Protein backbone atom coordinates (compact mmCIF):
# COMPACT_ATOMS: atom_id res chain seq x y z
CA UNK A 1 0.00 0.00 0.00
CA UNK A 2 1.57 3.28 -1.06
CA UNK A 3 1.29 6.68 0.56
CA UNK A 4 -1.01 8.04 -2.14
CA UNK A 5 -3.79 5.70 -1.01
CA UNK A 6 -3.86 7.54 2.33
CA UNK A 7 -4.17 11.00 0.83
CA UNK A 8 -7.11 13.22 1.69
CA UNK A 9 -8.38 12.92 -1.86
CA UNK A 10 -9.17 9.23 -1.32
CA UNK A 11 -11.19 9.74 1.85
CA UNK A 12 -14.97 9.29 1.36
CA UNK A 13 -15.77 12.87 2.38
CA UNK A 14 -13.47 14.34 -0.29
CA UNK A 15 -14.26 11.79 -3.00
CA UNK A 16 -18.00 12.38 -2.71
CA UNK A 17 -19.80 14.32 -5.41
CA UNK A 18 -22.48 16.91 -4.74
CA UNK A 19 -25.25 14.41 -5.49
CA UNK A 20 -23.71 11.88 -3.09
CA UNK A 21 -23.46 14.48 -0.33
CA UNK A 22 -27.09 15.48 -0.90
CA UNK A 23 -28.21 11.85 -0.63
CA UNK A 24 -26.08 11.18 2.47
CA UNK A 25 -27.11 14.36 4.29
CA UNK A 26 -30.78 13.90 3.46
CA UNK A 27 -30.92 10.37 4.84
CA UNK A 28 -28.69 11.12 7.83
CA UNK A 29 -30.72 14.16 8.89
CA UNK A 30 -33.95 12.20 8.42
CA UNK A 31 -32.72 9.34 10.64
CA UNK A 32 -31.40 11.65 13.38
CA UNK A 33 -34.54 13.79 13.25
CA UNK A 34 -36.78 10.71 13.49
CA UNK A 35 -34.83 9.45 16.51
CA UNK A 36 -35.06 12.86 18.18
CA UNK A 37 -38.79 13.32 17.59
CA UNK A 38 -39.64 9.81 18.75
CA UNK A 39 -37.43 10.23 21.82
CA UNK A 40 -39.07 13.48 22.90
CA UNK A 41 -42.53 12.03 22.21
CA UNK A 42 -41.66 9.54 24.97
CA UNK A 43 -42.05 6.53 22.71
CA UNK A 44 -40.44 3.60 24.51
CA UNK A 45 -38.29 2.36 21.57
CA UNK A 46 -37.53 5.44 19.41
CA UNK A 47 -34.86 3.59 17.44
CA UNK A 48 -37.64 2.04 15.34
CA UNK A 49 -38.37 5.54 13.99
CA UNK A 50 -34.73 5.84 12.90
CA UNK A 51 -34.93 2.41 11.26
CA UNK A 52 -38.13 3.40 9.45
CA UNK A 53 -36.49 6.57 8.10
CA UNK A 54 -33.56 4.46 6.86
CA UNK A 55 -35.82 1.98 5.07
CA UNK A 56 -37.66 4.65 3.04
CA UNK A 57 -34.45 6.45 2.04
CA UNK A 58 -34.90 6.11 -1.71
CA UNK A 59 -32.97 8.34 -4.13
CA UNK A 60 -36.15 9.61 -5.84
CA UNK A 61 -39.35 11.26 -4.66
CA UNK A 62 -41.58 8.63 -6.24
CA UNK A 63 -39.65 5.84 -4.54
CA UNK A 64 -40.03 7.49 -1.14
CA UNK A 65 -43.76 8.10 -1.61
CA UNK A 66 -44.58 4.62 -2.91
CA UNK A 67 -42.41 2.91 -0.29
CA UNK A 68 -43.90 5.05 2.48
CA UNK A 69 -47.48 4.25 1.47
CA UNK A 70 -46.71 0.55 1.40
CA UNK A 71 -44.95 0.78 4.75
CA UNK A 72 -47.81 2.62 6.43
CA UNK A 73 -50.44 0.21 5.07
CA UNK A 74 -48.36 -2.83 6.01
CA UNK A 75 -47.58 -1.50 9.48
CA UNK A 76 -51.24 -0.80 10.23
CA UNK A 77 -52.31 -4.21 8.95
CA UNK A 78 -49.55 -5.92 10.93
CA UNK A 79 -50.45 -4.01 14.10
CA UNK A 80 -54.13 -4.97 13.78
CA UNK A 81 -53.18 -8.61 13.23
CA UNK A 82 -50.86 -8.55 16.24
CA UNK A 83 -53.57 -7.06 18.46
CA UNK A 84 -56.19 -9.58 17.37
CA UNK A 85 -53.97 -12.65 17.52
CA UNK A 86 -52.09 -11.78 20.69
CA UNK A 87 -55.18 -10.44 22.41
CA UNK A 88 -57.03 -13.74 21.99
CA UNK A 89 -54.18 -16.23 22.39
CA UNK A 90 -51.61 -14.65 24.70
CA UNK A 91 -52.54 -16.88 27.65
CA UNK A 92 -52.07 -20.00 25.49
CA UNK A 93 -48.43 -20.03 24.31
CA UNK A 94 -48.85 -22.89 21.83
CA UNK A 95 -52.00 -21.45 20.30
CA UNK A 96 -50.31 -18.02 20.16
CA UNK A 97 -47.32 -19.54 18.37
CA UNK A 98 -49.56 -21.44 15.95
CA UNK A 99 -51.64 -18.37 15.05
CA UNK A 100 -48.63 -16.08 14.59
CA UNK A 101 -46.80 -18.67 12.47
CA UNK A 102 -49.90 -19.08 10.31
CA UNK A 103 -50.22 -15.30 9.86
CA UNK A 104 -46.58 -14.93 8.84
CA UNK A 105 -46.87 -17.91 6.50
CA UNK A 106 -49.92 -16.28 4.91
CA UNK A 107 -48.05 -12.97 4.45
CA UNK A 108 -45.12 -14.82 2.84
CA UNK A 109 -47.54 -16.54 0.46
CA UNK A 110 -49.44 -13.32 -0.29
CA UNK A 111 -46.40 -11.16 -1.07
CA UNK A 112 -45.42 -13.65 -3.80
CA UNK A 113 -48.70 -12.90 -5.60
CA UNK A 114 -48.03 -9.17 -5.94
CA UNK A 115 -45.24 -6.80 -6.89
CA UNK A 116 -43.85 -3.46 -5.77
CA UNK A 117 -45.91 -1.64 -3.12
CA UNK A 118 -48.51 -4.35 -2.46
CA UNK A 119 -45.87 -7.05 -2.00
CA UNK A 120 -43.92 -4.72 0.29
CA UNK A 121 -47.08 -4.01 2.31
CA UNK A 122 -47.63 -7.73 2.92
CA UNK A 123 -44.00 -8.14 3.95
CA UNK A 124 -44.43 -5.29 6.44
CA UNK A 125 -47.72 -6.76 7.66
CA UNK A 126 -45.87 -9.99 8.42
CA UNK A 127 -42.81 -8.85 10.27
CA UNK A 128 -44.49 -5.83 11.89
CA UNK A 129 -46.84 -8.30 13.56
CA UNK A 130 -43.77 -10.29 14.62
CA UNK A 131 -42.02 -7.20 16.01
CA UNK A 132 -45.12 -6.26 18.01
CA UNK A 133 -46.48 -9.64 19.07
CA UNK A 134 -43.47 -11.79 19.94
CA UNK A 135 -42.10 -9.44 22.65
CA UNK A 136 -45.60 -9.49 24.22
CA UNK A 137 -44.99 -12.94 25.69
CA UNK A 138 -43.30 -11.29 28.69
CA UNK A 139 -46.12 -8.86 29.58
CA UNK A 140 -48.66 -9.49 32.31
CA UNK A 141 -51.42 -6.97 31.56
CA UNK A 142 -53.56 -7.14 28.44
CA UNK A 143 -53.80 -3.33 28.34
CA UNK A 144 -50.13 -3.19 27.39
CA UNK A 145 -50.96 -4.78 24.03
CA UNK A 146 -52.51 -1.58 22.75
CA UNK A 147 -49.68 0.58 24.12
CA UNK A 148 -46.98 -1.49 22.41
CA UNK A 149 -48.82 -1.69 19.07
CA UNK A 150 -49.59 2.03 19.14
CA UNK A 151 -45.97 2.89 19.92
CA UNK A 152 -44.59 0.76 17.07
CA UNK A 153 -46.97 2.26 14.51
CA UNK A 154 -46.27 5.80 15.73
CA UNK A 155 -42.52 5.19 15.47
CA UNK A 156 -42.91 3.93 11.91
CA UNK A 157 -45.02 6.93 10.89
CA UNK A 158 -42.57 9.37 12.53
CA UNK A 159 -39.72 7.87 10.52
CA UNK A 160 -41.71 8.05 7.28
CA UNK A 161 -42.71 11.68 7.86
CA UNK A 162 -39.13 12.69 8.61
CA UNK A 163 -37.90 10.93 5.48
CA UNK A 164 -40.58 12.60 3.36
CA UNK A 165 -39.88 16.03 4.80
CA UNK A 166 -36.16 15.76 4.09
CA UNK A 167 -36.91 14.63 0.54
CA UNK A 168 -38.85 17.87 0.04
CA UNK A 169 -36.07 19.98 1.56
CA UNK A 170 -33.20 18.23 -0.27
CA UNK A 171 -34.81 16.76 -3.38
CA UNK A 172 -32.84 14.45 -5.62
CA UNK A 173 -33.07 13.54 -9.29
CA UNK A 174 -36.47 13.70 -10.91
CA UNK A 175 -38.42 10.50 -11.49
CA UNK A 176 -39.70 11.97 -14.75
CA UNK A 177 -36.17 12.55 -16.01
CA UNK A 178 -35.13 9.02 -15.05
CA UNK A 179 -38.15 7.48 -16.77
CA UNK A 180 -37.86 9.51 -19.97
CA UNK A 181 -34.12 8.82 -20.17
CA UNK A 182 -34.71 5.10 -19.72
CA UNK A 183 -37.43 5.09 -22.39
CA UNK A 184 -35.19 6.97 -24.85
CA UNK A 185 -32.24 4.68 -24.19
CA UNK A 186 -34.36 1.59 -24.67
CA UNK A 187 -35.86 3.08 -27.84
CA UNK A 188 -32.34 3.47 -29.25
CA UNK A 189 -31.20 0.09 -27.96
CA UNK A 190 -33.99 -1.66 -29.85
CA UNK A 191 -32.28 -0.65 -33.10
CA UNK A 192 -28.97 -2.08 -31.86
CA UNK A 193 -30.83 -5.21 -30.79
CA UNK A 194 -32.41 -5.53 -34.22
CA UNK A 195 -29.02 -5.16 -35.89
CA UNK A 196 -27.67 -7.94 -33.67
CA UNK A 197 -30.60 -10.35 -34.07
CA UNK A 198 -30.88 -9.95 -37.82
CA UNK A 199 -27.41 -11.41 -38.28
CA UNK A 200 -27.34 -14.93 -39.78
CA UNK A 201 -25.37 -16.56 -36.94
CA UNK A 202 -26.73 -17.93 -33.64
CA UNK A 203 -24.63 -17.34 -30.51
CA UNK A 204 -25.09 -17.21 -26.76
CA UNK A 205 -24.51 -13.45 -26.91
CA UNK A 206 -27.66 -13.03 -28.99
CA UNK A 207 -29.70 -15.04 -26.51
CA UNK A 208 -28.29 -13.08 -23.56
CA UNK A 209 -28.97 -9.77 -25.34
CA UNK A 210 -32.58 -10.77 -25.97
CA UNK A 211 -33.08 -11.66 -22.30
CA UNK A 212 -31.41 -8.39 -21.30
CA UNK A 213 -33.72 -6.27 -23.45
CA UNK A 214 -36.79 -8.05 -22.06
CA UNK A 215 -35.60 -7.56 -18.48
CA UNK A 216 -34.87 -3.86 -18.97
CA UNK A 217 -38.29 -3.14 -20.46
CA UNK A 218 -40.01 -4.93 -17.57
CA UNK A 219 -37.81 -3.06 -15.07
CA UNK A 220 -38.96 0.26 -16.52
CA UNK A 221 -42.40 -0.54 -15.13
CA UNK A 222 -40.95 0.27 -11.69
CA UNK A 223 -39.78 3.66 -12.97
CA UNK A 224 -43.29 4.24 -14.31
CA UNK A 225 -44.76 3.54 -10.87
CA UNK A 226 -42.35 5.94 -9.18
CA UNK A 227 -43.10 8.65 -11.74
CA UNK A 228 -46.82 8.00 -11.20
CA UNK A 229 -46.52 8.82 -7.50
CA UNK A 230 -44.25 11.84 -7.84
CA UNK A 231 -45.64 13.72 -10.86
CA UNK A 232 -49.22 14.77 -11.52
CA UNK A 233 -48.58 14.91 -15.28
CA UNK A 234 -47.42 11.30 -15.34
CA UNK A 235 -50.49 10.21 -13.40
CA UNK A 236 -52.50 11.74 -16.22
CA UNK A 237 -50.23 10.05 -18.79
CA UNK A 238 -50.24 6.64 -17.12
CA UNK A 239 -52.21 5.02 -19.95
CA UNK A 240 -49.78 6.41 -22.50
CA UNK A 241 -46.79 5.10 -20.53
CA UNK A 242 -48.34 1.65 -20.29
CA UNK A 243 -48.95 1.70 -24.03
CA UNK A 244 -45.33 2.71 -24.67
CA UNK A 245 -44.04 -0.21 -22.61
CA UNK A 246 -46.35 -2.56 -24.50
CA UNK A 247 -45.11 -1.07 -27.77
CA UNK A 248 -41.49 -1.70 -26.83
CA UNK A 249 -42.32 -5.29 -25.91
CA UNK A 250 -44.16 -5.65 -29.23
CA UNK A 251 -41.16 -4.32 -31.14
CA UNK A 252 -38.98 -6.86 -29.33
CA UNK A 253 -41.36 -9.59 -30.50
CA UNK A 254 -41.38 -8.31 -34.07
CA UNK A 255 -37.57 -8.17 -34.13
CA UNK A 256 -37.49 -11.79 -32.96
CA UNK A 257 -40.07 -12.91 -35.53
CA UNK A 258 -38.18 -11.16 -38.35
CA UNK A 259 -35.03 -12.97 -37.25
CA UNK A 260 -36.88 -16.29 -37.43
CA UNK A 261 -38.09 -15.48 -40.95
CA UNK A 262 -34.60 -14.50 -42.09
CA UNK A 263 -32.99 -17.65 -40.68
CA UNK A 264 -35.58 -19.89 -42.36
CA UNK A 265 -35.68 -18.06 -45.69
CA UNK A 266 -33.84 -20.17 -48.29
CA UNK A 267 -33.43 -17.46 -50.92
CA UNK A 268 -33.99 -13.90 -49.68
CA UNK A 269 -33.43 -10.95 -52.03
CA UNK A 270 -29.76 -10.23 -52.53
CA UNK A 271 -29.71 -6.74 -51.00
CA UNK A 272 -31.77 -7.61 -47.91
CA UNK A 273 -28.94 -7.21 -45.39
CA UNK A 274 -27.78 -3.89 -46.82
CA UNK A 275 -31.31 -2.48 -46.91
CA UNK A 276 -31.95 -3.52 -43.32
CA UNK A 277 -28.77 -1.82 -42.11
CA UNK A 278 -29.70 1.31 -44.07
CA UNK A 279 -33.17 1.20 -42.50
CA UNK A 280 -31.80 0.93 -38.95
CA UNK A 281 -29.42 3.82 -39.58
CA UNK A 282 -32.29 5.98 -40.85
CA UNK A 283 -34.57 5.10 -37.93
CA UNK A 284 -31.86 6.22 -35.50
CA UNK A 285 -32.31 9.78 -36.80
CA UNK A 286 -35.06 11.89 -35.28
CA UNK A 287 -35.68 13.53 -38.68
CA UNK A 288 -36.78 10.30 -40.37
CA UNK A 289 -40.41 10.15 -41.47
CA UNK A 290 -42.62 7.53 -43.08
CA UNK A 291 -41.72 8.66 -46.60
CA UNK A 292 -38.00 8.19 -45.96
CA UNK A 293 -38.65 4.72 -44.58
CA UNK A 294 -40.88 3.86 -47.54
CA UNK A 295 -38.15 4.81 -50.02
CA UNK A 296 -35.56 2.71 -48.18
CA UNK A 297 -37.61 -0.49 -47.96
CA UNK A 298 -39.24 -0.14 -51.39
CA UNK A 299 -36.72 -2.53 -53.07
CA UNK A 300 -37.89 -5.28 -50.69
CA UNK A 301 -41.50 -5.06 -51.85
CA UNK A 302 -42.57 -8.52 -53.16
CA UNK A 303 -43.38 -8.74 -56.84
CA UNK A 304 -44.90 -12.22 -56.64
CA UNK A 305 -47.87 -12.42 -54.26
CA UNK A 306 -47.56 -16.21 -54.27
CA UNK A 307 -44.18 -15.96 -52.53
CA UNK A 308 -45.68 -16.18 -49.06
CA UNK A 309 -42.37 -15.96 -47.23
CA UNK A 310 -41.54 -12.70 -48.96
CA UNK A 311 -45.02 -11.28 -48.38
CA UNK A 312 -44.97 -12.24 -44.69
CA UNK A 313 -41.52 -10.69 -44.21
CA UNK A 314 -42.59 -7.52 -46.02
CA UNK A 315 -45.72 -7.09 -43.91
CA UNK A 316 -43.81 -7.72 -40.69
CA UNK A 317 -41.05 -5.28 -41.60
CA UNK A 318 -43.58 -2.56 -42.41
CA UNK A 319 -45.28 -3.26 -39.08
CA UNK A 320 -41.97 -2.83 -37.24
CA UNK A 321 -41.28 0.48 -38.99
CA UNK A 322 -44.75 1.76 -38.20
CA UNK A 323 -44.40 0.77 -34.52
CA UNK A 324 -40.99 2.38 -34.20
CA UNK A 325 -42.04 5.67 -35.78
CA UNK A 326 -45.19 5.78 -33.67
CA UNK A 327 -43.16 5.15 -30.52
CA UNK A 328 -40.75 7.94 -31.52
CA UNK A 329 -43.65 10.35 -31.86
CA UNK A 330 -45.09 9.39 -28.48
CA UNK A 331 -41.72 9.83 -26.78
CA UNK A 332 -41.42 13.27 -28.35
CA UNK A 333 -44.88 14.19 -27.10
CA UNK A 334 -44.00 13.07 -23.58
CA UNK A 335 -40.80 15.11 -23.60
CA UNK A 336 -42.53 18.21 -24.93
CA UNK A 337 -45.25 17.96 -22.29
CA UNK A 338 -48.14 17.83 -24.76
CA UNK A 339 -51.15 16.16 -23.11
CA UNK A 340 -53.19 14.28 -25.67
CA UNK A 341 -55.18 11.26 -24.55
CA UNK A 342 -56.58 10.46 -27.97
CA UNK A 343 -53.48 9.12 -29.70
CA UNK A 344 -53.12 5.85 -27.80
CA UNK A 345 -55.96 3.69 -26.50
CA UNK A 346 -56.17 3.04 -22.80
CA UNK A 347 -53.89 0.10 -22.08
CA UNK A 348 -53.70 -2.11 -19.03
CA UNK A 349 -50.47 -2.55 -17.10
CA UNK A 350 -47.94 -5.26 -17.81
CA UNK A 351 -49.30 -8.68 -16.91
CA UNK A 352 -47.46 -11.00 -14.55
CA UNK A 353 -47.62 -14.61 -13.40
CA UNK A 354 -47.44 -16.04 -9.88
CA UNK A 355 -45.79 -19.38 -9.27
CA UNK A 356 -48.39 -20.72 -6.84
CA UNK A 357 -46.38 -23.83 -6.01
CA UNK A 358 -43.33 -21.79 -5.01
CA UNK A 359 -45.50 -19.32 -3.08
CA UNK A 360 -47.15 -22.13 -1.10
CA UNK A 361 -43.76 -23.70 -0.43
CA UNK A 362 -42.40 -20.37 0.86
CA UNK A 363 -45.39 -19.91 3.17
CA UNK A 364 -44.99 -23.45 4.49
CA UNK A 365 -41.28 -22.85 5.10
CA UNK A 366 -42.00 -19.73 7.14
CA UNK A 367 -44.67 -21.54 9.17
CA UNK A 368 -42.42 -24.53 9.94
CA UNK A 369 -39.43 -22.36 10.82
CA UNK A 370 -41.34 -20.26 13.33
CA UNK A 371 -43.03 -23.30 14.84
CA UNK A 372 -39.64 -24.98 15.31
CA UNK A 373 -38.00 -21.93 16.93
CA UNK A 374 -41.08 -21.20 19.02
CA UNK A 375 -41.30 -24.78 20.28
CA UNK A 376 -37.64 -24.67 21.25
CA UNK A 377 -38.12 -21.34 23.07
CA UNK A 378 -41.17 -22.59 24.98
CA UNK A 379 -39.54 -25.89 25.93
CA UNK A 380 -36.27 -24.28 27.06
CA UNK A 381 -37.93 -21.22 28.68
CA UNK A 382 -35.51 -18.99 26.78
CA UNK A 383 -36.07 -15.35 27.76
CA UNK A 384 -34.70 -14.02 24.46
CA UNK A 385 -36.67 -16.42 22.30
CA UNK A 386 -38.84 -13.52 21.11
CA UNK A 387 -35.81 -11.89 19.45
CA UNK A 388 -34.91 -15.13 17.69
CA UNK A 389 -38.48 -15.49 16.46
CA UNK A 390 -38.57 -11.88 15.25
CA UNK A 391 -35.34 -12.08 13.23
CA UNK A 392 -36.30 -15.49 11.84
CA UNK A 393 -39.67 -14.10 10.77
CA UNK A 394 -38.04 -11.10 9.07
CA UNK A 395 -35.55 -13.38 7.28
CA UNK A 396 -38.18 -15.84 6.06
CA UNK A 397 -40.59 -13.18 4.84
CA UNK A 398 -37.99 -10.97 3.16
CA UNK A 399 -35.80 -13.57 1.50
CA UNK A 400 -38.47 -15.96 0.25
CA UNK A 401 -38.85 -13.80 -2.85
CA UNK A 402 -35.17 -13.23 -3.69
CA UNK A 403 -33.27 -15.19 -6.30
CA UNK A 404 -30.36 -16.17 -3.99
CA UNK A 405 -31.67 -16.56 -0.41
CA UNK A 406 -28.54 -18.28 0.92
CA UNK A 407 -26.32 -15.44 -0.22
CA UNK A 408 -28.70 -12.88 1.32
CA UNK A 409 -28.93 -14.76 4.62
CA UNK A 410 -25.15 -15.16 4.80
CA UNK A 411 -24.79 -11.41 4.26
CA UNK A 412 -27.33 -10.76 7.01
CA UNK A 413 -25.44 -13.07 9.37
CA UNK A 414 -22.23 -11.15 8.73
CA UNK A 415 -24.09 -7.87 9.29
CA UNK A 416 -25.46 -9.01 12.64
CA UNK A 417 -22.06 -10.20 13.86
CA UNK A 418 -20.42 -6.90 12.92
CA UNK A 419 -23.23 -4.91 14.54
CA UNK A 420 -23.01 -6.97 17.73
CA UNK A 421 -19.33 -6.09 18.13
CA UNK A 422 -19.86 -2.47 17.12
CA UNK A 423 -22.90 -1.93 19.36
CA UNK A 424 -21.05 -3.41 22.35
CA UNK A 425 -18.32 -0.78 22.00
CA UNK A 426 -20.79 2.06 21.42
CA UNK A 427 -23.30 1.09 24.08
CA UNK A 428 -20.94 0.25 26.93
CA UNK A 429 -18.05 2.47 25.91
CA UNK A 430 -19.82 5.68 24.87
CA UNK A 431 -23.52 5.72 25.68
CA UNK A 432 -23.06 4.91 29.37
CA UNK A 433 -21.01 8.09 29.72
CA UNK A 434 -23.51 10.54 28.22
CA UNK A 435 -26.78 11.75 29.65
CA UNK A 436 -28.36 13.82 26.86
CA UNK A 437 -29.54 12.77 23.43
CA UNK A 438 -27.82 15.66 21.67
CA UNK A 439 -24.44 14.38 22.84
CA UNK A 440 -25.13 11.01 21.26
CA UNK A 441 -26.29 12.70 18.05
CA UNK A 442 -22.91 14.43 17.78
CA UNK A 443 -21.44 10.95 17.41
CA UNK A 444 -24.26 9.43 15.36
CA UNK A 445 -24.56 12.11 12.68
CA UNK A 446 -21.02 11.91 11.20
CA UNK A 447 -21.08 8.13 11.55
CA UNK A 448 -24.29 7.77 9.52
CA UNK A 449 -23.15 10.31 6.92
CA UNK A 450 -19.90 8.41 6.40
CA UNK A 451 -21.74 5.09 6.10
CA UNK A 452 -24.13 6.57 3.54
CA UNK A 453 -21.20 7.87 1.48
CA UNK A 454 -19.41 4.52 1.64
CA UNK A 455 -22.57 2.78 0.45
CA UNK A 456 -22.57 4.96 -2.66
CA UNK A 457 -18.82 4.82 -3.29
CA UNK A 458 -18.41 1.06 -2.77
CA UNK A 459 -21.00 -0.59 -5.05
CA UNK A 460 -19.57 -4.04 -4.36
CA UNK A 461 -20.40 -3.69 -0.65
CA UNK A 462 -23.50 -1.51 -1.02
CA UNK A 463 -25.81 -4.26 0.30
CA UNK A 464 -23.63 -4.71 3.41
CA UNK A 465 -23.51 -0.98 4.15
CA UNK A 466 -27.26 -0.70 3.59
CA UNK A 467 -28.00 -3.48 6.08
CA UNK A 468 -25.57 -1.99 8.61
CA UNK A 469 -27.42 1.33 8.40
CA UNK A 470 -30.89 -0.22 8.68
CA UNK A 471 -30.18 -2.68 11.51
CA UNK A 472 -27.83 -0.46 13.50
CA UNK A 473 -30.68 1.24 15.34
CA UNK A 474 -32.10 -2.01 16.73
CA UNK A 475 -28.65 -3.06 18.00
CA UNK A 476 -27.70 0.25 19.59
CA UNK A 477 -31.28 0.35 20.92
CA UNK A 478 -31.71 3.95 22.03
CA UNK A 479 -34.61 3.60 24.45
CA UNK A 480 -36.45 5.95 26.74
CA UNK A 481 -35.34 5.48 29.53
CA UNK A 482 -31.98 3.95 28.52
CA UNK A 483 -31.14 0.42 29.66
CA UNK A 484 -27.59 -0.89 30.14
CA UNK A 485 -27.71 -4.56 31.10
CA UNK A 486 -24.81 -6.55 29.69
CA UNK A 487 -26.48 -9.95 30.25
CA UNK A 488 -29.64 -8.89 28.40
CA UNK A 489 -27.56 -7.26 25.67
CA UNK A 490 -25.53 -10.42 25.10
CA UNK A 491 -28.59 -12.67 25.25
CA UNK A 492 -30.60 -10.51 22.84
CA UNK A 493 -27.82 -10.24 20.25
CA UNK A 494 -27.12 -13.95 20.45
CA UNK A 495 -30.82 -14.65 19.95
CA UNK A 496 -30.91 -12.46 16.82
CA UNK A 497 -27.95 -14.30 15.30
CA UNK A 498 -29.43 -17.69 16.22
CA UNK A 499 -32.76 -16.71 14.65
CA UNK A 500 -31.12 -15.88 11.32
CA UNK A 501 -28.98 -19.04 11.51
CA UNK A 502 -32.07 -21.19 12.03
CA UNK A 503 -33.77 -19.44 9.11
CA UNK A 504 -30.72 -20.31 6.99
CA UNK A 505 -31.05 -23.92 8.16
CA UNK A 506 -34.74 -23.92 7.21
CA UNK A 507 -33.88 -22.70 3.71
CA UNK A 508 -31.27 -25.47 3.47
CA UNK A 509 -33.76 -28.19 4.49
CA UNK A 510 -36.88 -26.83 2.77
CA UNK A 511 -34.98 -25.60 -0.24
CA UNK A 512 -36.60 -23.40 -2.89
CA UNK A 513 -37.47 -25.19 -6.11
CA UNK A 514 -34.65 -25.73 -8.58
CA UNK A 515 -34.46 -23.58 -11.69
CA UNK A 516 -35.17 -26.66 -13.82
CA UNK A 517 -38.47 -27.26 -11.98
CA UNK A 518 -39.35 -23.58 -12.16
CA UNK A 519 -38.63 -23.60 -15.89
CA UNK A 520 -40.93 -26.57 -16.44
CA UNK A 521 -43.71 -24.93 -14.41
CA UNK A 522 -43.37 -21.69 -16.39
CA UNK A 523 -43.45 -23.62 -19.67
CA UNK A 524 -46.62 -25.48 -18.64
CA UNK A 525 -48.22 -22.18 -17.65
CA UNK A 526 -47.24 -20.67 -21.01
CA UNK A 527 -48.80 -23.58 -22.86
CA UNK A 528 -52.05 -23.26 -20.87
CA UNK A 529 -52.19 -19.54 -21.57
CA UNK A 530 -51.54 -20.13 -25.27
CA UNK A 531 -54.38 -22.67 -25.44
CA UNK A 532 -56.59 -19.94 -24.00
CA UNK A 533 -55.44 -17.67 -26.85
CA UNK A 534 -56.89 -20.19 -29.31
CA UNK A 535 -60.36 -20.00 -27.77
CA UNK A 536 -63.16 -17.96 -29.31
CA UNK A 537 -63.09 -15.42 -26.48
CA UNK A 538 -59.57 -15.44 -24.93
CA UNK A 539 -59.11 -14.20 -21.39
CA UNK A 540 -56.02 -12.14 -22.25
CA UNK A 541 -55.63 -9.70 -25.10
CA UNK A 542 -52.69 -9.93 -27.48
CA UNK A 543 -50.60 -7.35 -25.60
CA UNK A 544 -51.47 -8.84 -22.20
CA UNK A 545 -50.41 -12.32 -23.32
CA UNK A 546 -47.23 -10.82 -24.73
CA UNK A 547 -46.27 -9.08 -21.49
CA UNK A 548 -47.22 -12.20 -19.51
CA UNK A 549 -44.96 -14.33 -21.71
CA UNK A 550 -42.05 -11.98 -21.23
CA UNK A 551 -42.69 -11.95 -17.49
CA UNK A 552 -42.37 -15.75 -17.51
CA UNK A 553 -39.11 -15.51 -19.44
CA UNK A 554 -37.67 -12.88 -17.08
CA UNK A 555 -38.24 -15.02 -13.97
CA UNK A 556 -35.10 -17.04 -14.72
CA UNK A 557 -32.97 -14.17 -15.98
CA UNK A 558 -30.56 -14.54 -13.03
CA UNK A 559 -30.51 -18.33 -13.10
CA UNK A 560 -27.22 -20.20 -13.36
CA UNK A 561 -28.96 -23.09 -15.14
CA UNK A 562 -28.32 -22.14 -18.76
CA UNK A 563 -30.34 -25.06 -20.12
CA UNK A 564 -33.46 -24.12 -18.12
CA UNK A 565 -33.19 -20.49 -19.22
CA UNK A 566 -32.68 -21.48 -22.86
CA UNK A 567 -35.71 -23.77 -23.03
CA UNK A 568 -37.95 -21.24 -21.31
CA UNK A 569 -36.83 -18.53 -23.73
CA UNK A 570 -37.40 -20.82 -26.72
CA UNK A 571 -40.89 -21.78 -25.63
CA UNK A 572 -41.75 -18.17 -24.90
CA UNK A 573 -40.54 -16.86 -28.27
CA UNK A 574 -42.18 -19.65 -30.30
CA UNK A 575 -45.55 -19.42 -28.52
CA UNK A 576 -45.44 -15.64 -28.79
CA UNK A 577 -44.86 -15.80 -32.54
CA UNK A 578 -47.73 -18.28 -32.84
CA UNK A 579 -50.01 -16.04 -30.80
CA UNK A 580 -49.31 -13.12 -33.15
CA UNK A 581 -50.33 -15.31 -36.09
CA UNK A 582 -53.48 -16.37 -34.21
CA UNK A 583 -54.47 -12.75 -33.62
CA UNK A 584 -53.74 -11.92 -37.25
CA UNK A 585 -56.04 -14.72 -38.36
CA UNK A 586 -58.65 -13.52 -35.90
CA UNK A 587 -58.47 -10.04 -37.42
CA UNK A 588 -58.83 -11.57 -40.89
CA UNK A 589 -61.99 -13.38 -39.88
CA UNK A 590 -64.01 -10.53 -41.34
CA UNK A 591 -62.33 -10.60 -44.78
CA UNK A 592 -63.01 -12.93 -47.75
CA UNK A 593 -62.21 -16.63 -47.60
CA UNK A 594 -59.24 -16.46 -49.98
CA UNK A 595 -57.40 -14.15 -47.57
CA UNK A 596 -58.04 -16.57 -44.70
CA UNK A 597 -56.40 -19.32 -46.73
CA UNK A 598 -53.50 -16.98 -47.41
CA UNK A 599 -53.15 -16.33 -43.67
CA UNK A 600 -53.17 -20.05 -42.88
CA UNK A 601 -50.37 -20.54 -45.40
CA UNK A 602 -48.37 -17.78 -43.70
CA UNK A 603 -48.96 -19.54 -40.36
CA UNK A 604 -47.38 -22.71 -41.73
CA UNK A 605 -44.46 -20.73 -43.16
CA UNK A 606 -43.77 -19.11 -39.77
CA UNK A 607 -43.89 -22.49 -38.07
CA UNK A 608 -41.20 -24.03 -40.27
Automatic annotation (TrEMBL):
Localization terms from the record: Cell membrane
Pfam families in the record: FUSC
UniProt keyword Transmembrane helix, yes or no: yes
Gene Ontology CC, one term: plasma membrane
Single annotated GO MF: transmembrane transporter activity
Membrane topology field: Multi-pass membrane protein
Record field: transmembrane: 21-41, 47-65, 72-88, 119-137, 149-170, 385-404, 411-431, 437-454, 461-481, 493-510
Gene source species: Escherichia coli TA447
Cross-referenced InterPro entries: PHBA_efflux_AaeB/fusaric-R (IPR006726)
Entry keywords, A to Z: Cell membrane, Membrane, Transmembrane, Transmembrane helix, Transport
Protein name (database record): Putative membrane protein
PANTHER family named among the record's database cross-references: MULTIDRUG RESISTANCE PROTEIN MDTO, P-HYDROXYBENZOIC ACID EFFLUX PUMP SUBUNIT-RELATED
Amino acid sequence: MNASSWSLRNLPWFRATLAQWRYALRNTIAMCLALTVAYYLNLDEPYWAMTSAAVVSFPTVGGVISKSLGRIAGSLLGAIAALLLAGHTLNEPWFFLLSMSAWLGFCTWACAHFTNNVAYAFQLAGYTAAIIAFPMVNITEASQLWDIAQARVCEVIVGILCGGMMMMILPSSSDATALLTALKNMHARLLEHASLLWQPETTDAIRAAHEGVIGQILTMNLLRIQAFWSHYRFRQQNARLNALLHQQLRMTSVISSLRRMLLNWPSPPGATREILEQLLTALASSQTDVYTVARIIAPLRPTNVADYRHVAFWQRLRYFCRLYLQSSQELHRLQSGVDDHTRLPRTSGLARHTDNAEAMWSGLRTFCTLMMIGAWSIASQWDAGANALTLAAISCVLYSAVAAPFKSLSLLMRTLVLLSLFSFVVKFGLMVQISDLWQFLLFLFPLLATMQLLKLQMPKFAALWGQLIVFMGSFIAVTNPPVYDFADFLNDNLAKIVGVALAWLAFAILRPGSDARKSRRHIRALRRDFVDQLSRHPTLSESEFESLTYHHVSQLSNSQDALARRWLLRWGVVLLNCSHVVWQLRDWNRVPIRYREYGITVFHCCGE
